[in-house]
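Question (not urgent): is this output format expected?
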Amino acid sequence: MSPDPKPPVVEPASGDDQPEDLTGRALRLRLRQQELLAELGVLALQGANFMEMLNHTARMVAEGLAAEYCKVMEYIPAQQRLLVRAGVGWDEGVVGHATVGADLASPAGYALRTGKPVISNHLENELRFRTPELLVEHGVRRAMNVILQGDGSPFGVLEVDSRSEGEFNEHDIAFLQGAANILGMAIEQQQYQRKLRAALDRHEILLKEVNHRVKNSLQVVSSMLQLQANAAGDPQLSEHLNEAASRVSAVGRAYERLAYAADDEHIGLVAYLREVIGDLETAVAPCAVRLEAPEEIRFAADRAILVALIINELVLNAGKYAYPDGAGGAIFVQLVRMPGNRVLVSVRDEGAGLPSGFDPETSKRLGARLVKAMARQLNAEMTQPASKIGTHFTVLVPLEAAKAG
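Got this back:
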């Protein structure tokens, strides 16, 4: 028998990659990583199906770490192996079929059984673990593994691999663990929901527990991003990290409000948004948010959270940029029932207006991209009506989702 491997040691980052003196390229990569985490969090809360979440996470991690390969592996207890459930970059026949060992002599197995992240920057000289044959066949030189939590027990491992001669460091581990936390939250949520559907009549109390755990998971992700912002040492990076934390926190608040307001399929949209806007007022103080809604509107519960997140982005943007002198002002949110079974959502302010040349349709800002993505998810029409003062956005949303086919 081979001896148990020594505990993995995460190698320190090189001096050229310390937060206080990140190169422009490295800084852009860190900012992109935080955008990807925020996008993944939104996708998870939109209720993407299981395989879509696994595949999206693999693609996102590979992009965020500039790596050729990434894989999501599920632990199969009966075989004591890890099965490649999703991945990017691998040869045909790997995903869904290939397995690696789940014992302590395997890097992925060590991460699974100890919960500790594993970095192997020089696999050709690795003495702590055996190198899986799958990595040898693909010419992988360096790899990272982190545990994927599930419902009560680990789901498996998230691994990223590269053939290049660079080195992964603690910043990369933080990004990989952040992606694993969000994916683990989605896996946990979906596993809970399957149990609930099987026993809903007898165990309705479990629904509140699911919502509570989802909210707590989002709070963990938000707190992790805030800790990274405090330690970044770079004002621009800290600002982007805090914005990412704020978005994840907003998703959690909107989800929490939805969880306690929803019946089986529909909610009162006006009452729900009144709660969401009440949460927003602290974030945009000293601005005042005024909701104008003449009637209650019954709305699909699973679509209401997207409306809330669109309003959250537009109101936060108005609070940040509309009144630059700090004196504050009014931000108006209006809901109007329209012909054709639609509702018009309007957000406007009386502030400084958009910068010259700014086009929301072509903007690459994360906030604008998220709003456009959620509007498409709702099959909604987003417009920017002409305004003599301030900024005005409208979103025309169908009350019901389009029927497939």
